[in-house]
Amino acid sequence: MAEMREVWIFVEQEEGTIAPVSLELLGKARDLAGELDGRVCALLMGHGIAELSQQAIQHGADKVFLAEDPQLAVYRTLPFAEVAINLVREHKPYILLFGATPIGRDLAPRVASAVRAGLTADCTDLRIGSYERGGKRYDDLLYQIRPAFGGNLIATIVNPEMHPQMATVREGVMKLGKPDRQRQGQIERIETSFNGSHSPLEVLSREIRLPTVDLKGASVIVAGGMGIGSREGFDLIRELAHVLGGEVAGSRAAVDAGFISAEHQVGQTGVTVRPRLYIACGISGAVQHRAGMDQSSKIIAINTDPHAPIFEIAHYKIVGDYRKVVPAMIEAYRGDRTPGEDA
Amino acid sequence: MPYHCVVLVKQVPDTANITGKAMKEDGTVNRAALPAIFNPEDLNALEMALRIKEEHGGQVTVLTMGPPRAADVLRDALYRGADRAILLTDRKTAGSDTLATSYALACAVERVGRDFGPIDLVLCGRQAIDGDTAQVGPQVAEKLGVPQITYAETIREMHNGDLVATRALPLGLETVKCALPCLLTVVSSANRPRPPSVRRMMAYKLAATPLEYGSILEQWPEFGSEEELDGYLAERGQKIMVWSAADVGADLERVGLSGSPTKVLKVDFVSLAAGDSKEIDASQEGVAELLEELTREYIL
Fold first, then answer.
1. Residue B190 region, left (φ>0) first, then alpha (ψ -120 to 50), else beta?
2. pTM (whole model) above 0.90
3. Rounded to the nearest 5 degrees, what angle is found at the Cα of A54, between the Cα atoms of A51 and A60?
4. What is the fold of B3-259?
5. Residues 6+ away with beta carbon under 8 Å from A86
6. In principle, which of A31, A227, A242, A249 could form an S-S bond with A223, CB 3.0–4.6 Å?
7. What is the mean pLDDT of chain B?
């Protein structure tokens, strides 16, 4: 009889707040563990963060491995990796997931390398399924589904033999579940032994920097043109971009009219972008603008004029007023995911 | 104090324009069908290494793993200022995932240290545009047993065997102090990579791997034989070394498909064919349906 399969989630916290992606993953882990007839374990590290264990349990953990140590107060690769590697070696989880955040993407490969496991980056979906190779059949494997090749492809990756099956998962793709205040779970404190050991790396300072515009790196862009009509009109554009986790852009006409600053300009005289999704609101689609965005994987155009040239290159045409369509999008997207009280 | 920097670079298919022909039946990428470029953030890593050398002295060794034609990015690195270039190429490493790749690279880095002097820093781009995994850097660091600084943007200072660097994270800057040797993965905002120098392009005109000697001899028969050409290039620092997995002491079970835990089950295309378009009703329902479709197709 095989041991019970465990789905582990690295629960990322900073200054006492759990990263939303970790809570999303705990919910997903519940579904996976249900299919595998296994259980969900949370790996929680930090200093003075014990009370977060309850939150992890309420979101789906059956058991929390809690490591508290002054050396873990601020995230650093080596001490965090050491705790995780020791636990993985001891307990041999079946699946181990991280959020694809800067911390998750720093820690997961370090751990995977040490335990010689496969790791798939930036998954957008996870499922359970079977796999056949060389006449051998593997059941109940984790399908690690991710965009590849600049978002042009979707690859399904499996890791049949060298477990744990490890993946980082993109933020916001799994539904954030409601916490269940009645849920009970076990908490196991992990002894750490950093005392006296000299760490080669120390964090000297951290400064919050205002986010800069990163149009080239954005996978979703919401853009407005002359049709937005005013500076205030762009608030709606910004809100949609924020909800979708994207950037805000403007056409040259919108920039020239002073609706939005020049670093947001897309087009021949601005930046050329190639996001996964480009939403053009109130943009007629002059050649100068199209040259900067027509390579986007998917284009949604919203315009009151059914003959606007932007529709010639749009994959999705919405003839209508952005003042109605954009709020509808915000509501539809939020309604799909907002969990309620804990959001 | 001089530093020995090793820069890990990768030749990548230009992922901007992918068509059906770029994929093979088995779901792997037909790299031969795509234009190959120097992975952009690896150029930032090279630039960072060159500036360390300019400021403190030392040497810059560039290492890549790939097919023979990956020698192109090594020549490019020589044109930009690298002192030495090494191609790790071996059919046995084909199909390596990030775990197997990092193992082979770490073995090669160790050999660089044995052959050309102790290494102070290993640098690479934050991630490669063909996979976007950002995994190989940290995995190489783990295998070498050195600390890693991911998302490195600037080196503030280097002295007494320590380095102070800033990391560009989405929420802000983190400044860390780290003991050398260590590994840095460098972001695109770190610097503006210098272009290849015309003077160096002339000087390294013949730079080649032994795998390319045949075609050089066809063009310049006056070199006589491969041995003579090899001697000529080696003497002038224009020989791009070629190492196999065995040359770097890699356990062959840990490279290539056998050393790769992850397998590709299948690959699906996501892009709509050009000209495909859909009318969406401007109602709440129409919009909700559209967002659902985009989520289902991994666009959102």
1. alpha
2. no
3. 145
4. Rossmann fold (3.40.50)
5. none
6. A249
7. 91
